[in-house]
Amino acid sequence: MKTNRKKKMTEKNNCPHCKSTKLEYYPDVDGASWVRHIYVQTKNGWEIKVFADEDKDVSTIQTGKIFQEDMMPYMYCISCTAEFHGRDLA
Q: Which of 21, 33, 39, 47 has the largest CB neighbor count within 10 A?
């Protein structure tokens, strides 16, 4: 069992419908996110900054962090436009 969990944390996940790896995760779909984001004005426009509750930069995370922080992760496949629950990842 630990082997599967380790695999999900380090490898790309696939859409359960079309097997694409072009996935999006929406942490704030229910308005109760574990991350917060702000836009900071820069010379090039507005740049997004993403933080966890402890002010840690979480702009890049592993799959395991999603499941650790979000009990109902909402996913979207860019390739086939499927919407699915994160636990359905193939």
A: 33
